[in-house]
Amino acid sequence: MRTKQEYLIRYKDGNLYCELGDIWIDPSKPVKKALITHAHFDHFTFGCEEYISTNETAILLKERVGDNIKIKTFEYGEEFKINGINISFHPSGHILGSSQIRFIFAEEKWLISGDFKLQKDQTCKQYEIVKTDYLISECTFGLPIFKWDESNKIANDISKWITNSPEKTSLLFCYSLGKAQRLLNEISQTNFKGNIYSHGSIHKMNNSYRELGIDIKDTIKIENKKKIDELKGSLILLPPSLSKGSYLKNFKNIQTAFASGWMSIRALRKRSGYDKGFAISDHADWDGILEVVKKSEAKNVFFHHGDSEALSKYLVEKESINVLLFGK
Amino acid sequence: MSLKKFSELFGDLDSINSTNNKIEVLKNYFLSNDPIDNSWAIYLLTGKSNKRFISGRYLKNIFSQIYEYPQWLIDTCYLKVGDSAEVITLLLKNKTNSRKKKLSNISLNELLSETIPALSKLNEEEKNLEIKNLWETLPEDNHLIFNKILTGTFRVGVSIGLITKSISKLINIEEEIISHRLMGDFKPSIDSYEFLINKNINLQELNSKPFPFLLANTIEDKIFKNSINDFQFEWKYDGIRMQLIKRSGNVSLWTRGQELVNESFPELVEKMSHIKDDFVLDGELLVWNFKEKIAFDFSLLQKRINIKSPTRSIQIKYPIIFIAYDLLEINGRDIREIKLENRRIELEKYFLKWQIKTENNISDIFKICDLIFPKDWPDALTYKEKSRENNTEGLIIKKKASIYSSGRKKGIWWKYKVDPMQLDAVLIYAKGGSGRRAGLYTDYSFALWKDKELIKFASAYSGLTNIEIKELDKWIRKNTIEKFGPVRSLKPEMVFEISFEKIQISKRHKSGIAVRFPRITKWRKDKKINDADSLENAYKLMKKIS
């Protein structure tokens, strides 16, 4: 057994760190060299000397935070070297541009899953199975109570939810990058043919997706609405941060919903304060995590981002897979 | 008409917040389904069926057996979900997908009148097999309803009042009439549903209607400028406000929430029906300590009201009393326009007559409220302070010259409540909540100082806002010292103001004291743990009161 310090990648100050290359993965503080798995803000921090990501992630990041960050980009599957380590990005299916990162050093393979899902999503590349010796996986939804429905079923539920209340304005809250575009893509294939509006932050991301060649239905920027009555019977996509506070006073006769994996649990749905919850996630469910663990052929697995206790115990007991703990 | 429709109804009711929309959804359900399924729906929604066919634990066990699923994993999931029926429903999604069997489109009636009752006739092995079979043949979105009915935990945010309102809207008949029809032993059948939606009202139904209740306002300083002789003083009981009606021989008990509760208190209905006169009384229902002549805690009453058709032994265990404080109608004559002081004279006169003339003894279940006669306002204050001794909440002060109007009209009835007792205590343990609070640490234990040690003195789970609960939950996860199952011991750091109604000696607790209705009234972020109260302060509080 090696000590924790001897692993190629380990936890340092709450972040994934590779000492040999002095590389941080999605660091939460400014560092010299940061590999970025995807363009969500909880995986990005300002002030790093150099960022490295896929091309799509770089474009989305710049659209969100401005041009004055230095990003080096690589294609999926393209290998590059840092201090003798071979590194490559691979599609993780989470959002457009999202990636797993593979490290190979001295014939030992390490794979950082990044945020990932296996479900079909027409707005980004499908998760690619990558073989590895060591797997560092997220486990946001690491319990068997999480089992996602097909996304077209959820989209149909959403469509029904809107059309069943034609007198109302339907506000659907979702993350502005990734979830919103996936929903737009799915909803445009349902029976709902009314107007769709989106908040400026979502609208901006829609445009970026389109520029990157993803087919996203055109929406009206909600800031451009002329009068409140035109919103009746239509769908408005908004970021969750606007669900609390006075923003909702801009509308009348509304129904609200939240699109998130957590909405599969009734208690959380009730507590969320939204009228309705749609359980759709860009993270893997229990089966998804198990599938990736098995197909990666990893002999050693680390988990982060979630409650890993039950998942670890299950893998050790049922699948005889060695689950290791990070010393935090 | 299928179980599927009912599952959809459940889903709709569960995700609609507006009362009006719920009524609309219910109305449409009733319009589009069979009378027999409608009657079952009403039966379920009004909570008339809480029969538990199997326990939540048993449900988890058979799932574990059938699908070779580790019990600990199910238990871990339960901590997140907080409901056995729902955990199994969610886990089933992972298990029944690959099924080849033909899905059944069973009706609500068939499920409830045949399939589920038949389960109890099977031996354990057969029962487990049958449940497995049902899981695999029922459509997935019916699993939750099925599991909830099995475990007797079917509940949805629909009150009996809401059902009453929707049927009332459906057939355009007043709610009170529907309430009356829903009373009693509602057996699901085509007949019972047809009776419910019958547009012809009979006389007895008309006769049972209560008057709108007169409500008290919180006291205002200006009242102390008035002469004390203008007012009637009563103890403020912590019971269920009720109108007790007897018209043409029939007794009805109506709560302030327009609920007819005859079924919960049959002994009162029976006794009162022996009185010869007809009347409408306004008063309070309590579980009564006949020895000490004071009310028992409200918690006992709550237990009691939740038991429909209580057995004789329940009636003895939780003896009730109706304390009347007003007479609103006597032998068909509405006397609400008469001044309170004169209504009181009538009330006393009739009560005396009933006590003497009624064949059965009524005073073991019915009395009129005692009046208090303070000399002046300071004296009234002294009475108020003493109200804890007889388990009342303070005083009710009524203007003698007032008529019985309706609603919370100012200047007629005042409530003068005693202040709660308070101590600042340190949070030392937290436990995960269940149901709506699942996945969050919401049950807290608090401690007081004894020398240099913190001694647990009370547990509380109410009083924080949802935002505070989330904030505290985060803090708890970061500041755990040890985990014991669902309980975490915490770094002593957070101070809370705990309010309670009563404090007494208790040998069962390490602290030596027990408090009633402890609740969090303030998160004292401004206080350090050394500022928290000591046990000694608690003892002092106790002395001050007794």
TrEMBL record, chain A:
PANTHER family attached to this UniProt entry: BLL1145 PROTEIN, CLEAVAGE AND POLYADENYLATION SPECIFICITY FACTOR FAMILY MEMBER
Organism name: Prochlorococcus marinus str. MIT 9314
InterPro entries: MBL, RibonucZ/Hydroxyglut_hydro, Xnuc_lig_assoc
Name used for this protein in its record: mRNA 3-end processing factor
SUPFAM superfamilies assigned: Metallo-hydrolase/oxidoreductase (SSF56281)
Gene3D superfamilies: Ribonuclease Z/Hydroxyacylglutathione hydrolase-like (3.60.15.10)
GO molecular function: RNA endonuclease activity
Automatic annotation (TrEMBL), chain B:
Reaction catalysed by this enzyme: ATP + (deoxyribonucleotide)n-3'-hydroxyl + 5'-phospho-(deoxyribonucleotide)m = (deoxyribonucleotide)n+m + AMP + diphosphate
Domain ATP-dependent DNA ligase family profile: 313-450
TM region(s), chain numbering: none
EC number(s) from the headed UniProt entry: 6.5.1.1
InterPro entries assigned: ATP-dep_DNA_ligase (IPR050191), ATP_dep_DNA_lig_pp_1105_fam (IPR026333), DNA_ligase_ATP-dep_C (IPR012309), DNA_ligase_ATP-dep_cent (IPR012310), DNA_ligase_ATP-dep_CS (IPR016059), DNA_ligase_ATP-dep_N (IPR012308), DNA_ligase_N_sf (IPR036599), NA-bd_OB-fold (IPR012340)
PANTHER family registered for this protein in UniProt: DNA LIGASE 1/3 FAMILY MEMBER, DNA LIGASE-RELATED
Protein name: DNA ligase (ATP)
Organism, scientific name: Prochlorococcus marinus str. MIT 9314
